[in-house]
Amino acid sequence: MDIRHSTNPADAKHYDTARLRQQYLIEKLFQADEIKMVYAHDDRLIIGGALPVNAALTIEAADVLKTDYFLERREIGFIHVGGGEAAIEADGERYALGKLDTLYVGKGTRSLKLSSVNPSDPAKIYFTSALAHTTYPTRKVSVQEANTLNLGSLESSNERTIHQIIHENGVQSCQLMLGVTLFKPGSVWNTMPAHLHDRRMEAYLYFDMNADARVFHFMGEPNETRHIVIANEQAVISPSWSIHSGAGTSSYAFVWAMAGENYTFKDMDVVEMDALK
């Protein structure tokens, strides 16, 4: 478990490129037969990835959690982002996930095992986990069942489809929210105009990019923006005080996940374009 402590915006504005990447970028989430996890002290979100090839992988409580099992005081959302079909067992109940299918598992589930149906085409399973105060039922959702929004335009380079999956009007959770945004060919801008939500942090996983493609992820206070160059299947932590926006060298997709105080997708403060510096 990699630990990332929270940062103050007054300090972050002085970070150089190396420090920005060390603090906010998660570079290697999918390693064969391993589970990678990052514990972000921003709203205590855990961000993880698994690439099961030769055997099932078990998510266990790291020492930092001080619990007997991973979901003793947590909930978790899994989404399949690449490769062949995935299989997830939650307390012995098996769920098959195709690409962009999501599985929510509630507080109190003791056993979590991740595997690939076909080892020659292993699944890439991304997950985020937030603190939970009660138990909501485990539920699988296909991307076709998500609440879908079609936004933007090709003229503004941001024609995109947003699939809201774990949220107030979808799969119920304590505080975790999760969805995926897919861009149409020729569109590269996400979340512009930018916004803030001081009551929630957010994490992005950028994926479905060619090896030589990059996303320039913009962060920081609106009047002190910075950027991080991100490659395929890398994630980034966005503190509650930071904008979170990006532009790619080509179309891409990203999973967004949020945790914090408020539980509504619309809880945001839009930043006017003339306020960005």
Automatic annotation (TrEMBL):
Pfam families: KduI (PF04962). Binds 1 zinc ion per subunit. Its EC number is 5.3.1.17. InterPro entries: KduI, KduI/IolB_isomerase, KduI_N, RmlC-like_jellyroll, RmlC_Cupin_sf. Pathway: Glycan metabolism; pectin degradation; 2-dehydro-3-deoxy-D-gluconate from pectin: step 4/5. Keywords: Isomerase, Metal-binding, Zinc. It catalyses: 5-dehydro-4-deoxy-D-glucuronate = 3-deoxy-D-glycero-2,5-hexodiulosonate. Its cofactor is Zn(2+). One of its GO terms (molecular function) is 4-deoxy-L-threo-5-hexosulose-uronate ketol-isomerase activity. The keyword Chloroplast does not apply. Zn(2+) binds at residues 195, 197, 202, 244. PANTHER family: 4-DEOXY-L-THREO-5-HEXOSULOSE-URONATE KETOL-ISOMERASE. Catalyzes the isomerization of 5-dehydro-4-deoxy-D-glucuronate to 3-deoxy-D-glycero-2,5-hexodiulosonate. Belongs to the KduI family. This is 4-deoxy-L-threo-5-hexosulose-uronate ketol-isomerase. It comes from Cohnella cellulosilytica.
